[in-house]
Amino acid sequence: MKLHQIDGYIQSIYLVEYRYGLLLLDGCCRADIPHLLNFIREQLKRPVKDLKLVIVTHMHPDHAGAAHRLRKLTGCSIAAANVPGQWYQGIDGILMHWTDLLLASWVAKRMKKTRCNLWYNAKLKPDYLLDDQELVPGFPEWRALSTQGHTDRDLSLYHQNSGKVYVADLMVKVKGRYIPPFPVFYPNRYRQSVNKIVALSPTSLLLAHGGEICPSQDDFQHLLDKAPTTPTTHWRSVKTKFKRAFSAT
Asked: What's this model's pTM, rounded to 2 decimal places?
């Protein structure tokens, strides 16, 4: 197994290489597609058809944005968490999808990236639905872990032979410390997910935003100390700002 870490548009891309095929540990941004396919052709000297599976850990633009298009271009399959329904459902879902696209564009601007089209289908159509602890189809060295909290369908991916775990957005690095992501829709599930990863005693963690790290017990404790006890979401943030503005008048 060779693990390739590639600088993506606003996140790290993790591409796993085997003789028999390639596994993409997350669905990337739409803007990452040309860069990723060029890496497969030029750096790995392999046909893009060797990409066999893309796992979507959750539905945000930098984790699901390229999945459908990659399936069309390469013939790969898509896997996601076995959670009923779509993340972006109804009127609220449409608004949240647009908000998440705007947030991704804002992050790209702060990173001084060229403006790109990040639009993607809000409704995912996976080929495989993965339960907690299920082996990844075609790549049995990897196991799917349910690590909900950030959303209701977050997955982490555990490579049993090496002890590495791709945790997607379970934590992010800010000013040298590891903190919970924004949003956290399900704070109790989030704490359970962090503790699940701690219990594995991983050799390293692969972050979507922060690269490969080897966190200490102090890092994990800091993460849990910073974990919210009530949901931190787009709508609650807006309400809080309105309340502060209103009380200041």
From this structure: 0.94
What is the secondary structure of 92-151 as a DSSP string?
Answer: HHHHHHHHHHHHHHHHHHHTTPPP------SS---SEEE-TTPEETTEEEEEEEE--SSS
What CA–CA distance (Å, rounded) separates 81 from 59?
A: 10
239: left (phi over 0), alpha (psi -120 to 50) or beta: alpha
3-class state of residue 211 by DSSP: strand
Mean pLDDT by 10 residues, the chain (249 residues): 98 98 98 98 98 98 98 98 97 94 96 97 98 98 98 98 98 92 97 98 97 96 96 66 45
Q: How many CB atoms lie within 10 A of CB 214?
A: 9
- Name the fold adopted by 2-226: Metallo-beta-lactamase; Chain A (3.60.15)
